[in-house]
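hey can u check if this looks right to u? its 397 residues, i copy pasted from the old doc so theres a chance i mangled smth
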Amino acid sequence: MYKKIFLILIICGFLISPTFSIAAQQNNNYNIKKILQKTNKSNSYETDTPTWEEGDTWTYDMTIEGELGDALAFNWGFRDLLFTVESDQGSTYIVTINGEVTGEINIFEIQIISGSLKDTTITGEIVVDKSNIGFKNINAHIEGKIAVVGIPLKPFTMDINVDITPSFNAIDFPLKPGKQWTTPACNVTGTAEVSLLENPIYIDDLIGGNTAECTGVETVTIDAGTYEAFVILSDGDVSTLYYAEDAGNVIRAYGDEEKSIDITMESTTYGVVPGAPNRPSKPQGPTRGTPKKTYTYSSSTTDNEGDDIYYLFDWGDGTHSSWIGPYHSGETVKASHKWSKKNTYRVRVKAKDVEGHESKWSSSLTVSMPRDKNRILSSSYSRLWCFFQLFFLQIFV
């Protein structure tokens, strides 16, 4: 009986944890007034849906701990949980996951039953919707050993495959302070197959449907670095979410300990190629203009080894500059471009050192190109001339 209860609780812990990685979004184990006082930076901050590149990585440490009534206490965790953008499939990203799983549980009923996971790892794949960074599918394989007092150490495997319909996105882009939204209500369906159980466990549950608000921008220092992060509060089980544009992802999240379950997550690394220059600054330059006119944009970065640096600008219209340089580490680069037609473009830049090590792309600068003013003026003058012709014809004819 206790063995079965223990296995079911392990499964529940693993199912909650991936759901949290999907939905790390909601309420607050800090005092909300304190957060609002700290997040008082300019409301002009705004960020679009991030663009991920193949090879981008984020590493997280995550814990879920708490009690369920007087029956049990638990503590699940993921250590060095590595997310890697494996490929760009056009409308989706394929993101692989790899990390260490830990877990402990105490069952208080008649007698105390204690158990833990040993040498347990997780690998898998997540399908992410590019349009909103929403999770569509999670496929994970967990393998390790279970150590329970009174039960011999046993190896086990677990395979989890769930679909999320529609895709779940905790953040509604474009994101800016003061924005409010409701997370989508999504149906989670799939199976969990455990080697120690005869039959699979069928999953059919709902997530989402919570209200959320971006309350401001805060400077956050974590193991991965220091970031300007958008602070998001919501009314669900996870209370506070920090999204950093420069990392292109969530960097910190907290759960609601008042609901007897406390969840924490923090990014420990944001991947860069060893030896590559640091991520260039967001391009600076005009954000509005007219087609067929030339505009100039600038950026800069540093190389930790002091190498000279080349820069490549992506103009958002399917064209790139050539590699420009070399420039000294920290020196500002400038490049110019002329767009041919009305549209909205996202300008970004990457760097590489003289040894060929390429950085990540910078954050994007959104540039709007309204219709050609000359064409508008020409059309207006044409209509005005026709009006005068008609007017004078009425008088003199």
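The longest helix spans residues 373-396.
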